[in-house]
Each structure stands twice: as C-alpha cells, then as structure tokens.
Amino acid sequence: MTTRRVKPTGDVSRARVKPPVPPSAAWEVGDPVAGRRFAQIGDLQLEGGKVLPHVIVAYETWGELNDAGDNAVLILHALTGDAHVTDGKAPGQLTAGWWEQMVGPGCPIDTDKYFVVAPNVLGGCSGTTGPASRRIGGRRWAGEFPRLSVRDQVAAEIGLAHHLGIHQWQAVVGASMGGLRALEWALLGPENGIEVRKLIAIATSAATSSDQIAWAHPQLAAIRLDPGFQGGDYYDSYDDAGPHRGLAIARQIAHATYRSADELNQRFQRFPQSGEDPLVDGRYAIQSYLDHHGDKLARRFDANSYIVLTEAMFTHDLGRDRGGTNEALTAITAQTLVVAVDSDRLYPPSQSEHIAALVPDAELVVIHSGHGHDGFLIEFEQLGPAVRSFLALLDPANLPTDDITLIA
Q1: pLDDT per residue over 247-260, tens digit each?
Q2: What CATH class is the domain 37-209+316-398?
Q3: Neighbours of 60 (CB within 10 A)
Q4: pLDDT for 12
C-alpha cells in the first residue's frame, strides 16, 4: 500500500468521523505479502504497439497440482476484485475473499480436488504490474502507464501459466470483467499451447456494448476531473488530497448498474437517511448507500487502475480480427457453461444467450435474482450447484445425483 502522508493541521478540536483517505490503496513492494506469490514474466508486447517491460504477475493458489498436471482451474476476477478469492483479511490484504462460498475444501470449486490459480489482472493494484508500480529507477508509472487491451491482460496470464508449468486448464472461470478474459482465454490459450477444457463465463459478453461504454465514460471523467487526480500523478499527495472523491463518484455510478432497479426501489423506496431531512440539507437513504460504497472503494483501490482496467474493457471484442463475433464464438472448442442473471442490467441475459447459442458445446443457466449483476456474488444457492455439476462432468464417476436444469 502507498505510504500515507498526513497533512499537518493545527485544528485538533474536531474529531474525524472517518479516518482520512490515502491517495491510493495500491499494494506495493514492502507491504505485507499476505497470500500473494509473484511471477516475473519479462517484457510484454502490447497490442497498442508499446512494450511493457519487466512485467510481474501477482497471484494466489489453493490446493495442489497433481502429478498429471491436469487438475488446474483458473479464476479471473472482476473490475475491482483481485487474486484474493478466498480466505480472510490479513496484513497487506484489505478485504476477505470475494468468492469464499464458491472456492475452498468441499466448495463447488473444490480445492481438495483442484489446483486453483487466481491472478491479479495486468493493470491492477494488488501486486501485478500496474500504474502504481515502480519502474526501474524507482519512479511510478502513474498517468504514463500504457493503455491495455483484454488480450494484453490474457497474454500476461498466459505468461503466468507458462511460469507455473501448466499446459492445460481443467476450467477457466470468469465473471463480469473476468468473463471477458475467460472468453479470450478459450481462443488465445490453445493458440499458445495451453488447452482449455472447460469454460465458465458468468454475467459477461462477447463484446463490450456501446451501452456499457456509455455507463463507464462518465465514471472516468469523474476521476480525471477530480483536482486531486493531477493527471494521474497523485501518489505522493497527502491523505485526503488524492482523487478519492472522483473515484467514489465513479463507484457510485457503477454500483447503480450492479444492482437492479427493483431492488433499489424496494429496499430504499423514498426513505430519508436516518436522522437527515432531504427537505433541508439531508439525503435520501439511497444516496447514503451510494456514498458508503463510493467511500469503501476509495479506501481499497487505486484511481489509475480503475481507469486502465475500464479502458481495457472497452477494447473487448472477441471477433476483432477473427472474422466477427459470431465466427469467433463458433471457434471455441472448450465445453462451456454460460451463466446469466435475469435482472442484470449491465450485462443483460441476451448477451449470455448470444454466447451460448453460438459456442458449439455450450449450456446456459439463468440465475433468478432481484440483485442484478451482483447476483453472481450473492446467489450461491443457485450458482454453486450449477458450477459443481458442470465441473463434475469432467469425471463421469462424479456426476451428481440431483438434477439441475440446463438450457441448451
């Protein structure tokens, strides 16, 4: 995490309700390692023409790779996630695992059976090379970090697989932004000598839509227009002087797309926030809820990474230079499970249906949820059995006895 600089003040009479916000929550060398491991994969040629030197990929693993080397599962995180899929908080690890009910001993992705690998995405802020990383000489990339594509990110993950000696994935699993990379893995993996036997693409799309770019565009503007952003060169700022306000606004816009309209209307209705009067100078409960989530992200993420990762998502088009999206989908050879959330307004079910209709060996599961896009983080009673059943098909002896409805 970035070293914090607290601005001196002579006013100590007013206690803060919350501690100050650091300019960045990015992990950096010297912070506690927690469960991270690191792979040096060398220089990476980017699609945009630049070379990103000395790339390091931070990752975590659970379980053991078997002697045959055929039980590895790759899990790819969403926009503000990281490699910490399961296990609790620890020094150097600000959050507990984001998928703890899905990954672990006896869980749907069973670490007693599988060797699970989860990398922090290229451009992220949890140990993999990104804007907060230091170049040779000690200077941070900051606002000079090059633009990335989803394929660049997968190229870095392919480098990690080679580093680990993995030549096949029993499954590649990704949700939301992770699903974009999972789809690319299904094509780029075999092209680079790594078999992808099964693909699980959750709440994602074959190409980023104009609607998705439209929702994200003002998020990036909010960050860049924050005076504390300083063109991306804010890492040495005092606490509370970084771009946390812009990052919080970006998260508020995004969070509204992660949940469904019905949930927000039913949960918050037109209630005022407790102890506040919207007719005077107070907020409605929904405003307080969004303020809370914006503040949470600003304390655990990095504004430059948010921009780099979001712009990488803009580039996603599985069909680019492959004859179009439909042609690319039909080229996927992995057995595929596509999961949609019926109330998802960010990645609507129609996008999942498109994938499942064209991938030759694909099944579609629709999760029923009032929570919207975040259903993949909440509806474990539906998602868990679907994933467990699909992975069990790797071994006929492990076929479940209970039925699960799969939509062809």
Answers
A1: 999 999 999 999 99
A2: alpha beta
A3: 24
A4: 36
